[in-house]
Amino acid sequence: MKAYLDFERPVADLEGKVAELKSIEESEGGVAIADEINRLEAKARQALSDIYAKLTPWQKTQVARHPGRPHTLDYVGQLIEEFTPLAGDRKYGNDKAILAGLGRFRGKPVAVLGHEKGSDTETRLNHNFGMARPEGYRKAVRLMELAERFGLPVIAFVDTAGAYPGVGAEERGQAEAIARATDACLGLGVPNVAVIIGEGGSGGAIAVATANKVLMHEHAIYSVISPEGAASILWHDSSRAADAATALKLTASDLQRFGVIDAIIGEPLGGAHRDPDRTVLETGVAIDKALAECADLDADAIRRHRREKFLAIGRSL
Hints:
The protein is an alpha/beta fold.
């Protein structure tokens, strides 16, 4: 059963009628209602197109958080061959909010990182909803050090509301772990590509997204704080999250204009959750192109490219 967002109600009603008519058609031995079904399907597609052509930043936030969007495990499962996961930070433990490992992307060896939110109640709890603790970021640093040693490009999939803010995480050095992961990204002498596949929240995202090429899905979001958090701070009222989403300029089009991201990956009509396989395929094409653009750079040039990219943000407006 499809999960519809609040603003998709007109589409839900039309698609519900289509499903009802198809059920009647099957149960009554092919009643001639195909024309009506086709008419309603066309109407539903048009309604969906009209809605998604003018999404507000808050509506894009809801799409980015849709539980049916493909997650890091989906991308790894379809794009990375011979994937071997890496567990633990060799200091405290293994954080399951961050997936890390080695594999092959289109036949070439790569290192892979990604936040994993989980796809149902059990897996969401297991992966802590994609909110990593310090040991998750230290595991990421460990993987990046391996990538540097063996000359492997790094691919990161970003999908987190932010780093885990619990007392234990702070006691174990959350801020320091995020800073060291960000520094490890900046210091890599191999190309790294980050893809914002859903939410890119705060330092929890930037810790693995400080890359030569930052790609972002059309309906993903990327910001220094969640809209709810910003509304609570600015207006002491989390119900003003929609206003905060607009003010934060967290959409892909805004961020490309500011130079924060390098390219936007288009999504199927209605969002990535409506056609996950196509979304994964398009993402693979974009990653391949981004890596190819860095293929001829030596280690110093790669570091210089990354440094200049981030220093230039905000200076050309």
